[in-house]
Amino acid sequence: MIETQARVLEVEPGAALVEPMEPSGCSACGGNGGGCGADRIGQVFTLRSKRYRVLDPRGSRVGEAVVVGVADGAVLRGSGAVYLLPLLLIFMGAMLAGHFAPLAGRDGWSIAGAATGFALGTLWLLWFSRRAARDARFQPVILRAVSENLFVLKELGS
């Protein structure tokens, strides 16, 4: 489970709007206290604070500090479905169209095949995003409240 701390901003039945308390929601992984830094790169391109809608089975209160988690496999499955499969469809469309096309116009057919693969990938993304939005395995969830008297020590890199 990938976890981060957040503060509850709004509540609704079964869900809450939270804002991460740490600058990077992905600092849990990585060796020397870093993670991959992808969130820090994203912060350069956004001006507003990050707020996320998460599932709230425990009934949190506004202002409460909570621990939000996402299942380990959800990130890998989601990124594979969103990035890898559409790219494979584009490449496969280009290769298949180029393979079965007449020799003289092979480049044009390859471009058309890639465009067809792109269209299929877009349809796949629409279907997958609707399915994932309803699937609790892909949703972040509030796991527990942050204990007020709990200290978390992080190792500092030398």
TrEMBL record:
Origin: domain of life: Bacteria
This protein's UniProt keywords: Membrane, Transmembrane, Transmembrane helix
InterPro entries found in the cross-reference section: RseC, SigmaE_reg_RseC_MucC
Membrane-spanning segments: 81-102, 108-128
Cross-referenced PANTHER family: PROTEIN RSEC
Protein's UniProt name: Positive regulator for alginate biosynthesis MucC
Organism: Sulfuriferula plumbiphila
Lineage, highest ranks first: Bacteria, Pseudomonadati, Pseudomonadota, Betaproteobacteria, Nitrosomonadales
